[in-house]
Amino acid sequence: MAVIDDMRSGFARSSTLMRIVWTNIGVFVLLRIAAIVCVFSGTPDFINSILSQIELPSTIGALLTRPWTLITYMFAQYDLLHIVFNMLWLYWFGTMFRMVCTSRQLFVLYIYGGLAGAVLFLAGYNTLPLFHGNHYGSLIGSSAAVIAIVTAVAILMPHFKMHMLFIGAVSVKWIALATIVLVLIGVTGSNAGGEIAHLGGILTGLLFALRLKKGSDITAPVARIVDRTARQRKTTPPNRPSSHNNPNGPSNQASATSTKSATSSTTSGLTPDERLELDTILDKIKKSGYSALTPAERDRLFNVSRKIK
User: Does residue 4 surpass a pLDDT of 90?
Assistant: First the structure.
């Protein structure tokens, strides 16, 4: 179908950040459609059986029978407000994260945050007296993964300002601090298990950012595995013309043209002056780190980055 083909090609052209967002939205839509089908087929409770294959169970025994839930739970939401809040925060803070880090780091940190949240959730449910009366629970949602990115941005870009409705410009560090305080308060509430998972995301973002400031990237090992897997999946195009006898032949010309197109496409939508300004700021970040930028340069970097198509 043309619609499905358009969606597939659009997804393929999307950035890593948007692919994560669209995956979460897609899973949410499929779950809600499944719930509607269950209701109209006279089996409304069957949706719980479907969710049990996606949610992270609180018992080790159940997890051993559904180990894939360590990953699936962090890409699924079932409540509307849950996905709206998580995806807005992921998009906003993910966009800021990409100003100082790569898409690969974003993806791996998202996974790290989700896994850390899962570990703390399981550890809390199986060891803390708070949960001794609860024989079974489950975890669903990308909150732990998203809050890892939020925390990392707050440390890497503490003075960057976000314009909040009815409040005005607020530094990212205060937004992250308020989030952490709410998480700590929520540990004693009805969603204690979920809030403990959020702590896993906070600790992961904190570790990533602090280590990155010291020149160490904790996402690198997984990123290398992802890169190696991607290279193995690549195949040589059939009937590719040979140019062994001509170093300036068709293949090299195509490569040069492709590289030039890729370079120019990354700054499409910018004027020559804006491109020069962006290059100057990026060179400064490369030499001295993001913290060396002045508040004006950080604001300018954000504004110019938003224009890139």
Answer: no
Instruction: Give the up-direction half-sphere exposure of residue 31: CA atoms within 13 A in the CB hemisphere.
Output: 26
The pLDDT of 126-138, averaged and rounded, is 76
Can you tell me the distance from the alpha carbon of 191 to that of 174, in angstroms, rounded to the nearest whole number? 24
C-alpha pair distances (Å), 167 with each of 93, 162, 171, 175: 18, 10, 11, 12
Closest to 172 (Cα-Cα) out of 298, 307, 3:
298
Phi then psi for residue 45, to 5 deg, are -80, -10
Q: Identify the band that residue 39 occupies on the pLDDT scale cut at 50, 70 and 90.
A: very high
Which amino acid does the sequence have at 198? H
Q: Which residues pair with 164 in a beta bridge?
A: 168
How far from the centroid of its chain's Cα atoms is residue 177's Cα?
20
pLDDT in tens, 44-68: 899 999 999 999 999 899 999 999 9
Classified as helix, coil or strand, 171 is strand
Residue type, 169: A
Q: How far is CA 44 from CA 78, 97, 137, in A?
A: 15, 41, 20
pTM summary value: 0.73
Bridge-based pairing state of the strands 138-139 and 161-164: unpaired
Separation of CA 127 from chain center: 29
* Alpha-carbon distances of 80 from 20, 24, 66, rounded to whole Å: 17, 12, 25
